[in-house]
Design brief:
Length: about 350
């Protein structure tokens, strides 16, 4: 019996990118900390959507260089005068409350949005696939993006690393599919209006924000239960709606890896679905891929079925060398007390 027997999702077309803002797109949006991996992605999506974007950061980096080449003005250093022309100011949890630009924005009654709130506005009317987890979410998001690229679904993508295939951490697509790596560190994932929630792993990172490991698990439980459909590891010990979710793993998950073969520069394995359906996904990489790469492939596989795509769109549908962020080409083992 096929465990995934879904009809094609009927996506709702969004006519406006930021509904609760003026539709003229003449507002200046200032992003504090624009060089960060998450903020630079937001800046690029807004800029490519014809919004006037500017920003500031303490120092230049590759992300800022890329944004400047797009024509985005970036101030190095924080100064209250930098936000003078802006109507909207965006900040992340990394920006302290006493930041001079943030204080000036609030004192002048400008619209101040946390990064998560801006993301919600950008996603309005989209079909959202959100990938979160303590580890593996960047690789998994990149694999899902590759599947969409090869299947012809022109998705909008925000990922926490530079994809070799995009030379960026963001891509504005033409379809209503919005794929995002959802940050769990400050609870941003809980604000994301996910249609499909993907959890890669859960461990005791970010205790400083959540308090206890149980609080972290409760947050992930809320994340998956807020979505219409969830994909999570078989070992995830969190409350979830089993009738509206599917699990993956090496052992007895409904989606699992089998016949794992280690080659000189790759790992090859079968993806098994309900025992009697299989599709082979060869993973090519410039480094030896460990089990985390297989977990990422398994968590991305259900997306193909959910949106009626195919695993074998091309043999290189999931290929580390072409699609995975450079930082993910290096793997390391981490010992943790609590890990799911």
């Amino acid at each position: 019996m096929r465990v995934l027997n879904y009809t094609i999702i009927n996506l709702v077309i969004s006519k406006r990118l930021l509904p609760n803002m003026h539709s003229t797109k003449k507002e200046v949006i200032h992003i504090i900390g624009i060089g960060g991996i998450g903020m630079s992605a937001i800046a690029e999506i807004l800029h490519n959507s014809s919004y006037k974007v500017q920003g500031s950061d303490t120092r230049s980096n590759d992300n800022i260089d890329r944004l400047q080449k797009l024509g985005i003005e970036v101030y190095i250093g924080h100064n209250a005068s930098s936000i003078r022309q802006a109507q909207i100011v965006v900040h992340s949890s990394a920006i302290k409350p006493d930041n001079v630009e943030l204080v000036a924005a609030r004192n002048s009654n400008k619209t101040v949005l946390h990064r998560s709130d801006m993301l919600v506005k950008i996603m309005k009317g989209k079909y959202v696939i959100a990938v979160s987890g303590s580890s593996g979410k960047t690789t998994t998001t990149a694999m899902i993006a590759s599947i969409f690229d090869h299947s012809g679904d022109d998705a909008t993508v925000i990922v926490g690393g530079i994809l070799n295939s995009y030379q960026s951490n963001a891509k504005l697509g033409k379809s209503d599919i919005f794929l995002i790596e959802a940050d769990e560190s400050d609870g941003t994932m809980l604000k994301i209006p996910a249609d499909i929630a993907v959890v890669t792993s859960i461990n005791d990172d970010h205790i400083d924000h959540y308090g206890t490991f149980n609080d972290i698990k409760n947050a992930f439980s809320r994340f998956v239960n807020n979505a219409n459909f969830a994909i999570l590891p078989d070992s995830a010990d969190i409350n979830h709606d089993a009738s509206n979710s599917i699990k993956f793993w090496f052992g007895n998950g409904k989606i699992r890896a089998s016949n794992i073969k280690q080659h000189n520069n790759s790992i090859e394995f079968d993806v098994l679905i309900s025992i009697n359906e299989s599709n082979r996904i060869p993973l090519s990489t410039t480094r030896v891929v460990e089990r985390d790469g297989i977990k990422a492939a398994l968590s991305s596989s259900p997306q193909c079925l959910k949106l009626d795509s195919r695993f074998n769109v091309k043999q290189d549908t999931i290929e580390f060398k072409r699609t995975i962020p450079r930082k993910s080409l290096h793997s390391k083992k981490v010992n943790r007390t609590n890990a799911i």
